[in-house]
Structures are given as C-alpha cells and as structure tokens.
Amino acid sequence: MDGRIKDSLELWEKNVLEKHLQKNPESKEKFTTLSNQEIKRLYTPVDLEDFDYLRDLGFPGEYPYTRGVQPTMYRGKVWTMRQFAGFGTAEDTNARYKYLLSQGQTGLSVAFHMPTLMGVDSDSPRARGEVGKCGVAIDSLADMEILFDGIPLDKVTTSMTINGPASILLCMYMAVAEKQGVSWDKIGGTIQNDILKEYIAQKSWLFPPKPSIRLITDIFAFCSKHVPKWNTISISGYHIREAGSSALQELAFTLKDGFTYVEAGIEAGLNVDDFAPRLSFFFNAHNDFFEEIAKYRAARRIWAREMRETYKAKDPRSWMLRFHTQTAGCSLTAQQPLNNIVRVTIQALAAVLGGTQSLHTNSMDETLALPTELAVTVALRTQQIIAEESGVINTIDPLGGSYFVEKLTNEMEKGAYEYFRKIDDLGGMVKAIELGYPQREIMDHAYWYQQAVEKGEKTIVGVNKYIMQEEIPIPILKIDDEVEKKQIARTQEVKRTRDKKAWENALRELKKAATGKENLIPYIYNAVKAYATIGEIVDTLKEVFGEYKEPAMF
Amino acid sequence: MRKVRILMAKPGLDGHDRGVKIVSRALRDAGFEVIYTGLHQTPEDVVNIALQEDVDAIGMSVLSGAHNYLFSRVLELLKEKNATDIVVFGGGIIPEDDVKYLKSIGVKELFLPGTPLETIINWAKENIKPLS
Fold first, then answer.
1. How far is the C-alpha of B11 from the C-alpha of A175, rounded, in Å?
2. Is residue B20 less than 8 Å (CB to CB) from chain A?
C-alpha cells in the first residue's frame, strides 16, 4: 500500500473535513444500510489494503467469477426477462403467457396457486377459497397440457416456482414435452425445488427434511442423465429476504442451504461435477442499491471458492453461481402505488449491475392484488429500458474496483462465513432449522426493521413520510369465484374418465418404491401419465414419509 | 382484571407469516396475552383453538387472496358455537371492496399493508375487552 494515500487522507480529515464539519454537521450521526450495516463517509484505497485483483476479482467468466459468470456478460446477450405469472385456470394463464411472449418476454415463469404449492387438489375442502387466487390452478396433467398449449417447449425455457411437489410438476412438464414431440434433452428451465428455504421462510412444505432431500437428490440424479439442460434446483434467498431477513442473512442462509444440497448429492453417491453445474440460485433485489450489488458479487466468489476448495469440484461450471433475481415484493407500498415503479427500477438496476442471469420486475399493484396486464407491461418495459436505453450493459461489472463496492463485498463475505460457522456449531443447516435458528434470526431482523420504520429511523416514502390523504386509485385484477367451480369440475372429470387400473397401479408402485431406496422420479412420471392428481401423489408419499411440523413461534 | 387474550391465526394454505409474527410480538410487548396458531390452519382449527384457549379476540392474517372465504367461514363457525362475542379482526392483502364486504358481515377491523403497529395496538386496547 502506498503510505502517501494514508498520510494524505489523515491530512484531509484534519485540515478539510474537521473544519467543514464544525460549521456544517452531517444530517445524521450514523449512516446505515437497509440491513443496519454502518457505512463510512468515504472509501479509499486505505480500505482495501490487502486487496489482490487476481485473487479477489479475476476476469469475467473465470474463477472466482466476482465480475460475472460469462466472459462478455450482457454484451453477448442481455439477461432473460422472465415475469412470474399465473392466476385463475390454466386457460387464463396460457393467454397471459402468450401475451407476454408477444411483448418481447424471453422466458416463462409459472406461479402456482396455494393448493398446488401445498400438494392439495382443488376439490379438497382445504382448498376452499384459494383456487386460482395467487397463481394458476394445476391439479393434474390435464391442466398442464392446457397451460402450455400452443407454446413450443423447445423454443422457450420455463421456470416453475414449486418446491414440495417439484418432482411432480417436472414430470408433468416432461410429459407435455413428450406429447409435443420434444425430447427431454431439448427442454430447458428451472424448478425451484428448494425445501430448506421453505422450512426457513416461505413455509410451503410437505414432508420432513430427510425424505424431502431424498426427492431432491433423486431429481439431481435423474436429470443429469435424462434432462441435461434442466436447472434442478433454484436455491433461493428471495423468500428469506421477504420474510424479513437482512441482506447478509439472505446471502449466508442461501449459500449454506446450497452447500447442504451439495453434501446431500455427494452422500447419495453422485459425482459433484455431474449435478453441481445444474444448481442455480435466486436472490432478492431490495432498495439498498450498493448493499445488493455487494451481495451478488460476494455470493459468486464464496460459491466458487467453496465448490473448488471444499467440495473438490473440477468442472468450472460447478464453480459458477448463476442466479435469477426478483425485485423485493415486500418493499412495495399500497400507499401511492405509482411510486413502486421507481423502486422497482432502482432494484432492477442493482440486479443488473450485480450480474444477474434473469430478472423478474414486480408490478406496481402487487401489494393490492395480482398484477393487471397494464402493470405487468410497465414492469417489463422497465427492464427493456435498462437493457436498451441506459447504457449500463456496455461494460462488464462497471462497479468493480469501486473502493466502496469492493469493501462492502469483502464485508458481506466475512459476515457470511461467520454465519456458516454458527450454523456448523449447531450441527448443520437441517439441525439449525429444527432448532428454529435461522427462523428466529430472520424474525428478529424483521421486528427490528418494523420498529425502525415506526420510529422514523428508516423512511418508506408515502408510508411514514410524505404521506398523502388522497390515494391514487389503480385498477385491480379480480379472480372470479367461477374459477373455483370450473377447476373443481375439470379435476373431477379427470378422476372419472382416467384409466382406473393404470392409475391404481402407478400409485401402488410409487408407494412401494418410496419405502425402498430406488430413484422415485420414474414412478412419479408414471403416476402423472396415468393422470393421478398432485394431491393423490402427495398423499401417497405422505403415507410413507410423514408430514413436517413447524416449531411455531413468534 | 385479567389480561386480554388474543389468538393470532394463519388460516388457509398461505405461508407468509412475517406480518402475523410481527403483530403478535408487538401485541405481546404491549401487554396482551398472545397465542399463535402456527401455519396452515383450517377455519375449524382456528375456532376450536379459540374456544379451548378462551380468547377474547381472533386476529387472522391472510395474504393469499382467500380472505373472503376464510373470514366468513370463521364467523359462521363462531355463530354455530354461540361465540359471537369473540372479536374477529385481521390483516393482509385485501382489496378495498372486500374490506367493505368483510366488515359488513362482522369482521371488526382489517389492517392493510403499511399500517403502523401503534395503530393496531391502540385499536386493540379500545376494542378488545376481557370476556367474562
């Protein structure tokens, strides 16, 4: 380090800064990020004393990938614009997909309704009031065939936000592809399939951890042989953040979940390089611009190092952390909803400067209901403006080398390793979850944040500052109650008309396989093809696996 | 006089529990006795727990869009059990028209996104009294 900079900095502090502060004090005693991390007034080379360019950053497309996973990043191809959508029946959502594709969207992303997420059929009493409300109702292969009707599965990639029943929805997608004459090695997409973050944050679970992780490693093994372009898991921090975590907690818990899956795959006898290249990630983009960018950059560096050094992966594709980003739903306000467009723009820009591979931008009306077509279009246009008007894609990792961003990236990394150690001390992530550790950490941070908002220490424009009495009315998407009736009728029709014998056999075989050690995916595929419903398949597995019970606390 | 007892509940399949947990903590810190049901409760579960625990109010959080069914079913069950003196309130992603409807059938108050905790606490102090 050049000692002259340090000396000059001290002189500047004494001669310039102190004098200035005497007359012009700063507006606050402490400046902190959204996650309550203190930020200094100024960052200089003094903050990066042991910075080593080749070790810490390297070049894009090369270990440790801090600057990005591809050698040309968005100059080659901009991120995939992938708007999460689903509501009503399969027909309703199919029409929305066709609209989004016609508007320049480049990938599909399926939002399922709560009953599908929880492995419950639409005609179950537990589904009353929920059908088609916060996503599309899918009960059986019959619905899935309608959902992708007229959408060639060799031309689009599809992300499915599905966890507990991920294997079932993947099998349905494979069955639709087969029907379209598209072979499995040609289909691409992602299933979320991240059960650990369900226990931690999103809380849509079915089975206890052990059999859930078995299903996940079965998917890893099956897809590496038969569906090679499929991202078998999307290890998600998004929901952890939405549940109220800090940026650091999001980073640390997500990566630790990722390592837990890698260990499970290795324990199941798989070669790490056979499944690790298909692991993908999903992060949140919240309001604190630089903190978010540092989070993505630190994530890439930590993942690369651990995959190479700890898990001994040899294939560079196993070292690369590829991720999807969604802007923070929890940052949107019901008050003055047009302001949300601006929030989303800042968040999306952070994701892009952080090197995301795909992006969902939230619509302005999502604290009120599912988005209208107009609101979704503005959200998509936001991405197109960033990509094609702002000029930020012209160079790779434009913030790399910023004293501030590099220092923040280092601090994120250090904080994540501290969390890894704490979780290891508790006996690993599964044990930590059973003890309620990550859940409590997140809850504590959420409560701190809420109180900071109440005290006015953190500003939410339109909510605790710049409040207006008159609300701007915006149109809202309503899901007709007819949807529920229509869906129940279709599912009951499927149950009446399917081949009873094939259906019975498939479920019996599945149950038998679940009690043993065989890979379950071919059995689930057979059940799906026999038009067994999601509820029936899940109930069959629950008979063997049991159900998860949460440690309920607040 | 005994403490006011509130059952905080998550009915339906929705797992978004950030709000219900924050409000539960805030009510507890403000001196209420709070019982939390945990997730994925049916309306029947909620009403049974409310009666067993002898609560004065039920606060329900619904973010999945299933509010009309879940709130009205809980009110219906309370009526069947002659327990309409239990105050029912709640919160979540609930459009304006549905707020009006739910209040018209007997939901005492609904708190929407962005509501300060203090508003909820003050409302609870004024509107929930210990039932004898």
1. 34
2. yes
Residue B2: its pLDDT value, please?
Answer: 85
Would you kindly state where each structural domain of chain A is located, as residue ranges?
Answer: 53-81+153-454
Which chain A residues have a beta carbon less than 8 Å from that of B17? Answer: 203, 243
| Segments of A8-137 assigned E as strands | 80-81, 84-85, 108-111
Beta strands (DSSP E) in A330-461 are 358-360
Is 80 exceeded by the pLDDT of residue A51? yes
Widest pairwise Cα distance in chain B:
38
Check A130 against B118: CB less than 8 A apart. Answer: no
Task: Among A130, A238, A368, A474, pick the best mutation site for testing chain B contact (most B Cβ within 10 A).
Answer: A130
Contact (CB<8Å) B22/A446? yes
Average pLDDT, chain A: 95
pLDDT category, A474, cuts 50, 70, 90? Answer: confident
Give B36's contacts in chain A (Cβ within 8 Å): 552-554
Query: Residues with Cβ < 8 Å from A424, sequence gap 6 or more?
Result: none
Instruction: Describe the strand order of the beta sheet including B57-62 as a list of residue ranges.
Output: B33-36, B5-9, B57-62, B87-92, B109-111
pLDDT tens figures, A378-403: 999 999 999 999 999 999 999 999 99
Distance separating alpha carbons of residues A478 and A368, to the nearest angstrom? 10
Pairing of strands A188-191, A358-360: unpaired
Nearest to A450 among B8, B40, B117 (CB): B117
* Torsional sign, CA A129, A134, A140, A142: positive
* Closest chain A residue to B34, measured at CA: A554
Residue boundaries of the structural domains of chain B: 5-127
User: If one looks up domain A53-81+153-454 in CATH, what number appears?
Assistant: 3.20.20.240
Residues A283-320: tens digit of each pLDDT: 999 999 999 999 999 999 999 999 999 999 999 999 99
Q: Are A330 and B117 within 8 A, CB to CB?
A: no
- Measured CA to CA, the distance from residue A170 to residue A520 in angstroms comes to 13
Phi, psi of A245, rounded to the nearest 5 degrees: -75, 170
Q: Which residues of A touch B7 (CB under 8 A)?
A: none
Mean pLDDT of A411-423: 98
A296: left (phi over 0), alpha (psi -120 to 50) or beta: alpha
Q: CA A322, CA A317: separation in Å to the nearest integer?
A: 10
pLDDT value, residue A369: 82
Confidence of residue A269 (pLDDT cuts 50, 70, 90): very high
A345-355 tens-digit pLDDT: 999 999 999 99
CATH number 3.40.50.280 given to B5-127: yes
ipTM: 0.90
B24 has a chain A CB within 8 A of its CB: yes
User: What is residue A92's three-state secondary structure?
Assistant: helix
Q: Please tell me the distance from the alpha carbon of residue A435 to that of residue A453, in angstroms, as a whole number.
A: 29
Q: Which tens digits make up the pLDDT trace of A185-219?
A: 999 999 999 999 999 999 999 999 999 999 999 99
Q: Pull the structure tokens for residue B87.
A: 């105050």
